[in-house]
Specification:
- There is one protein chain.
- The protein is of the alpha+beta class.
- It has three domains: about 100 residues, Potassium Channel Kv1.1, Chain A; about 70 residues, no CATH class; about 80 residues, no CATH class.
- Helix content is about 50%, strand content about 5%.
- The protein has a four-stranded mixed sheet.
- The longest helix is centred in the last third of the chain and has 25 residues.
């Protein structure tokens, strides 16, 4: 499907061949433009009347990259839907070959699932499925692939939220994170260490206890009942909240607290909990050995 009769260059990646128009590639990629300017037919093998250029990239990455260029509507800007596999390949290839517009679109897609703002992280609107069904048995997920990808292309602002998502797995799953649905290389050893260190740091942090601990709130007319309700929540979930610190208590805030607390205490707990969420989010980069959000 990427073999055009009027193509004037044949690209070989692994065992796949693609016959395309070099002029169109040159318009998208400054590096390929430079490469093709030195292309001499007498120095290359020929296939179907066109010189063959061998690339070191995977056939999968090259396929998605070329389709993004030559197939209409294959890879559209946000908010058009896509898949992580396409985003991963297009981003890696466009960064490598300096296809600036495609790289910008791919980064925008990636950022829809891995936000830098707390509100965007808690209520994401990703343009691709961030937890796709794997094509083979695996303990990991694309969060590990995103860490590696963000490192490779210098998208450091993606790292904190990707690390946060990756740390939600068990220690065993993190250590086995090299086996992932996406065909990329998986999380590399230094980043695996950062993820495990972040997991340990987060487990040593104090949870949002001030939002649920027994305390007298001004204006509360049922202090004994409200204090008892807050303590029950705190005791019931004293350890489990660490399974997903930013999200664990959200169902309590939405569903349980309105039934257990008076309106005054409910508003107070919501306010304190949201303040805790923001302070935790501000600290996320540091948990994983990264600079602050502002620096990233």
């Amino acid at each position: 499907d990427l073999w055009f009769p009027d193509g004037n260059v044949v690209i070989k990646a692994e065992d796949r061949f693609f016959k395309v128009m070099r002029e169109q590639l040159s318009c998208k990629s400054s590096m390929l433009s430079d490469m093709f300017s030195f292309l001499r037919t007498q120095d290359n093998d020929m296939m179907d009347g066109a010189p063959v250029v061998i690339f070191p990239d995977t056939a999968r990455d090259m396929t998605h990259f070329l389709k993004a260029i030559f197939v209409p509507n294959y890879f559209l800007p946000v908010p058009a839907p896509t898949t992580f596999e396409i985003v991963e390949s297009v981003l890696r290839m466009s960064h490598r070959y300096r296809a600036v517009t495609l790289e910008r679109h791919a980064l925008a897609h990636l950022s829809t699932a891995f936000d830098t703002k707390l509100e965007g992280f808690l209520d994401p609107k990703p343009t691709f499925d961030i937890h796709p069904e794997p094509s083979f048995e695996s303990s990991g997920d694309i969060d590990f692939a995103v860490v590696t990808l963000a490192r490779d292309v210098g998208a450091t602002w993606i790292l904190p939220s990707a690390f946060y998502e990756a740390h939600l797995y068990s220690v065993e799953e993190i250590c086995n994170g090299v086996a992932i649905p996406a065909s990329g290389p998986g999380i590399v050893t230094p980043d695996m260490s950062l993820c495990l260190a972040g997991l340990a740091r987060i487990r040593r942090t104090s949870g949002p206890v001030t939002a649920f601990m027994a305390c007298d709130v001004a204006g509360c007319t049922t202090q004994q009942a409200c204090n008892a309700a807050r303590m029950r929540i705190l005791v019931e979930d004293a350890a489990e909240w660490q399974s997903d610190p930013l999200n664990y208590f959200r169902h309590w805030i939405r569903e349980t607290l309105p039934r257990r607390l008076c309106s005054v205490c409910y508003e107070h707990s919501c306010k304190v909990y949201m303040q805790w969420q923001q302070s935790f989010w501000d600290a996320v980069p540091g948990y994983f050995g990264l600079p602050s959000w502002e620096e990233l």
